[in-house]
C-alpha cells in the first residue's frame, strides 16, 4: 500500500510579522492521492499550499519533489498547477485564451492547443463556451474554467485552495462529485485546502487536520472520524460530546460518577481525561436500562435524523437518532465501549495546539 | 427630491449659464461670424492655415505628447514599485507627490524658474562643480519640465489606483502556468493596467494641450502655444480669430477625451488615494 512519496515537506516553518503560521511542519504526499489540508482559518493550511506552489518561501525547512529539493524553485518552474481561491481567471482574455495560456507559454502548436482546450472544456462540461468573456460567467462556470486552465497543462499535482468556497450549497455539492470524477480521470495528485469538514470527508483519500500551524492528525477520513487523536480533531470533524472523565484503570472510565467500560488502556490510574462520544453513538433507551438517566431538553428535526439535547449528570449530551423522544421525557443513555474515545487532557494551551498525544 | 426644492439648484444653474454656457455661446458666435456679422468658416480655416498658427499647433501637440510620455515613463515604474511596498509607505509617497498640487500655481512656476534660471540653482551648482552653464530658462525644455512637474500627479494617481488594485493571484496564476516575470508583465500586468494608463495619459494630455499659463510663465513669452495665441488674440481684441482657434482647441480636447474616454471612465473618478 505504501506508494511513492511524491512531495515531502521537511521541517517547514513560516512566520508573518513575528507570528508563527507554520511550526516545523513535516508532511508527505503520495502519488495520485487526494489529500486535504483541513482546519479552521488561520491554521496555516493555505500557507502550506502556497509553499508547495512556490508562491511563499518558507523561513526554514525544505520542499522535496520526487527526491529533488525545489524549495528555491520559482512557481513557473514547478510541475504543478493551482486553482486559486477566487479563481484568478484573466479578465482580459476569453475562456479559450485563459485555458490556452499555459500551453502557449510551453510553445505548443496552435492545432494541439485547440484540441487540448476543447478536450478540457468537454471534461468540465463547458463545450462551446470558448469565445465567452470569463467575467460574464457564473461562479460555478468560472470554477470549472479555473480547473480546466490548470489541468490542460497535465501537471503532476493540482493544488486547490478552497475552490468551492464561493459557491452556493447546491453547486458545492455538485462540484464535489465532479471534482472526484476529475481526480479519477486525470489520475494525478490533488492537494486540497478547505475548512469544510464534510467536503474533506467526502473527497479525500487522506486528510491532514491542521490547527495553529501544526498537523494534528493525518489519516483516512474513516480514521479521522472514528479515531480522532485529540479533542480538537474530534470537535472539528463532525459534532462531538467532549466530557471530562477520570480513567479508573485500563478499560474503565468514570464519567461524572458513572463507570463506563471502554476499549482504551495505558493511562495512569485516576488520570483526568477527555472522553469523546459521537452524538450518533449515544443510544437512548428507557431510564431503567440506561447507564445514565437524563431529561430531553430540546428536539430538532434535521431531515435524516433528530437532534436532541439530553441533560444528564450535569452535562448536555448531544444525541443524533432516527427515533425521537419528546422534550421533557425521561430517558436512559447507553454507549457501547468501542464508541468511547479516551484522550489525554492537554496540559497547556500550547500543548493543546500541538495536540500532544502519546 | 421633492419638486418644491428644485429652486435649491438655482445658484448652480446661474453658475452654469453665466460661466459655462454664455462664454461657449459667445465663442461659437464669434468663431462663425465675420466682423460684419455674417456667417463664415473663415475664422476656423484661418486657424489651421495661418503659418504662425500651424507652427503653434505643431509645437503644442508635440509638447503635450512629450509631457504625457515623460509622465508615463516616470509614473508607471513608480506605480509598480509603490504597489509592492507596505501600505503605509505607499500613502506617504503618494502624499509627497500630490503635495505640490495644493500649492499655488504661480508659486510653483516661480520656484521652477528660480531653479532653471541662467543664474539659478542648477547653474550655480554646475558652476561650483566647474562645469559649463546650461541655458534652460525660457526654452521649450523649461515649459516641458514645468508641464511634467505640474501634471505628474494626474498621471500617477490613476496608474497607482489601477496597479495597486490588481489581484496578486492573477500574477501568481500566470507564474503558476509557467510564465516568467517578463512574460507575466507583458501578458498580464501591462494589459490589466491599461485603463489607468489611458486615464492618466488623458488627464495629462488634455490640460497640456490647452495650456498657456505654463508656457507664459516658463517660456518668457518667446514660445507661442495655441493657448498663448488665443489669449493674445483676445487681449488684442481680435475676438473672431481668437474664437476660431479656441473652437479648434476645443475640438482637439473633445476628440482626445472621446478616444480615451471609454477606458478612462473608471479610473478618473478615484483621483485621491
What does this protein look like?
The complex is a heterodimer of chains A (358) and B (273). Chain A is α+β, with helices and mostly antiparallel strands and 358 residues long. Helix content of chain A is 25%, strand content 35%. Chain A has 2 domains: 5-226, Rossmann fold, CATH 3.40.50; 240-354, Nucleic acid-binding proteins (OB fold (Dihydrolipoamide Acetyltransferase, E2P), Beta Barrel), CATH 2.40.50. In chain A, the strands form 4 sheets. In chain A, strands 6-7-8-3-9-10 form a 6-stranded mixed beta sheet, sandwiched between helices. In chain A, strands 13-12-11-14-20 form a 5-stranded antiparallel beta sheet. In chain A, strands 15-19-16-17-18 form a 5-stranded antiparallel beta sheet, with no helix packed on it. In chain B, helix 7 crosses helix 9. Classes of the chains: A alpha+beta (358), B mainly alpha (273). Chain A binds chain B through residues 53-55, 74-76, 81-82, 84-86, 88-92, 101-102, 105-106, 149-150, 153, and chain B through 167, 169-170, 172-180, 183, 187-188, 191-192.
H/E element sequence of chain B: HHHHHHHHHHHH
Report how far the terminal alpha carbons of chain A are from each other: 25 Å
The N- to C-terminal Cα distance of chain B equals 31 Å
- Structurally, the number of domains of chain B stands at 1
Strand arrangement, major sheet of chain A: 6-7-8-3-9-10
- Report the mean per-residue pLDDT of chain A as an integer: 90
Count of separate DSSP helical elements of chain A: 9
Relative strand content of chain A: 25-35%
**CATH class category name of the largest domain in chain A:** Alpha Beta
What is the number of domains of chain A? Answer: 2
Overall geometry of chain A: elongated
Amino acid at each position: 500500500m505504501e506508494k511513492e512519496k511524491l512531495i515531502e515537506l521537511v521541517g517547514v516553518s513560516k512566520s508573518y510579522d513575528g507570528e508563527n503560521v507554520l511550526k516545523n511542519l513535516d508532511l508527505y504526499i503520495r502519488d495520485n492521492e487526494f489529500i486535504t489540508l483541513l482546519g479552521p482559518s488561520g491554521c496555516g493550511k493555505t500557507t502550506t499550499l502556497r509553499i508547495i506552489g512556490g508562491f511563499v518561501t518558507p523561513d526554514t525547512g525544505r520542499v522535496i519533489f520526487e527526491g529533488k529539493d525545489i524549495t528555491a524553485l520559482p512557481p513557473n518552474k514547478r510541475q504543478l498547477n493551482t486553482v486559486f481561491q477566487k479563481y484568478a481567471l484573466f479578465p482580459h482574455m476569453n475562456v479559450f485564451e485563459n485555458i490556452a495560456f499555459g500551453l502557449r507559454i510551453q510553445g505548443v502548436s496552435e492545432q494541439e492547443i485547440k484540441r487540448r482546450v476543447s478536450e478540457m472544456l468537454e471534461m468540465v462540461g463547458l463545450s462551446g463556451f470558448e469565445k465567452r468573456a470569463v467575467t460574464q460567467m457564473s461562479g460555478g462556470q468560472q470554477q470549472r474554467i479555473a480547473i480546466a486552465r490548470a489541468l490542460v497543462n497535465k501537471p503532476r499535482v493540482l493544488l486547490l485552495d478552497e475552490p468551492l468556497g464561493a459557491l452556493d450549497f447546491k453547486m458545492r455539492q455538485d462540484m464535489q462529485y465532479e471534482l472526484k470524477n476529475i481526480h479519477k480521470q486525470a489520475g494525478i495528485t490533488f492537494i486540497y485546502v478547505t475548512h469544510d469538514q464534510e467536503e474533506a470527508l467526502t473527497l479525500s483519500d487522506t486528510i491532514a487536520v491542521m490547527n495553529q500551524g501544526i498537523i494534528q492528525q493525518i489519516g483516512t477520513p474513516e480514521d479521522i472520524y472514528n479515531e480522532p487523536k485529540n479533542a480538537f480533531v474530534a470537535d472539528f470533524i463532525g459534532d462531538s460530546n467532549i466530557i471530562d472523565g477520570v480513567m479508573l484503570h485500563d478499560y474503565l472510565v468514570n464519567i461524572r460518577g458513572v463507570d463506563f467500560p471502554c476499549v482504551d488502556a495505558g493511562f495512569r490510574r485516576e488520570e483526568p481525561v477527555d472522553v469523546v462520544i459521537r452524538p450518533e453513538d449515544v443510544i437512548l433507551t428507557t431510564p431503567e436500562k440506561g447507564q445514565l438517566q437524563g431529561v430531553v431538553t430540546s428536539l430538532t428535526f434535521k431531515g435524516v435524523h433528530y437532534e436532541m439535547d439530553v441533560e444528564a449528570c450535569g452535562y448536555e449530551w448531544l444525541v443524533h437518532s432516527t427515533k425521537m423522544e419528546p422534550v421533557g421525557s425521561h430517558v436512559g443513555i447507553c454507549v457501547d465501549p468501542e464508541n468511547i474515545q479516551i484522550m489525554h487532557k492537554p496540559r497547556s494551551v500550547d500543548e493543546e495546539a500541538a495536540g500532544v498525544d502519546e | 427630491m421633492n419638486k418644491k426644492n428644485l429652486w435649491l439648484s438655482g445658484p448652480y444653474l446661474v453658475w452654469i449659464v453665466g460661466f459655462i454656457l454664455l462664454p461657449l455661446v459667445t465663442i461659437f458666435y464669434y468663431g462663425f461670424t465675420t466682423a460684419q456679422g455674417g456667417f463664415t468658416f473663415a475664422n476656423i480655416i484661418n486657424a489651421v492655415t495661418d503659418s504662425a498658427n500651424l507652427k503653434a499647433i505643431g509645437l503644442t501637440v508635440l509638447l503635450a505628447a512629450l509631457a504625457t510620455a515623460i509622465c508615463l515613463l516616470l509614473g508607471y515604474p513608480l506605480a509598480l514599485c509603490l504597489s509592492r511596498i507596505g501600505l503605509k509607505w505607499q500613502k506617504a509617497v503618494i502624499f509627497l507627490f500630490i503635495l505640490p498640487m495644493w500649492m499655488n500655481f504661480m508659486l510653483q512656476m516661480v520656484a521652477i524658474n528660480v531653479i532653471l534660471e541662467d543664474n539659478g540653482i542648477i547653474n550655480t551648482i554646475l558652476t561650483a562643480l566647474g562645469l559649463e552653464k546650461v541655458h534652460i530658462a525660457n526654452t521649450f525644455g523649461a515649459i516641458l519640465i514645468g508641464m511634467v512637474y505640474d501634471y505628474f500627479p494626474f498621471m500617477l494617481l490613476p496608474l497607482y489606483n489601477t496597479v495597486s488594485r490588481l489581484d496578486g493571484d492573477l500574477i501568481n496564476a500566470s507564474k503558476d502556468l509557467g510564465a516568467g516575470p517578463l512574460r507575466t508583465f507583458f501578458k498580464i500586468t501591462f494589459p490589466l493596467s491599461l485603463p489607468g494608463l489611458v486615464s492618466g495619459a488623458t488627464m495629462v494630455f488634455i490640460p497640456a494641450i490647452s495650456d498657456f499659463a505654463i508656457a507664459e510663465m516658463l517660456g518668457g513669452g518667446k514660445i507661442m502655444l495655441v493657448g498663448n495665441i488665443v489669449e493674445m488674440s483676445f487681449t488684442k481684441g481680435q475676438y473672431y480669430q481668437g474664437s476660431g482657434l479656441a473652437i479648434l482647441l476645443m475640438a482637439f480636447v473633445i476628440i482626445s477625451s472621446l478616444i480615451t474616454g471609454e477606458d478612462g471612465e473608471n479610473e478618473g473618478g478615484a483621483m485621491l488615494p
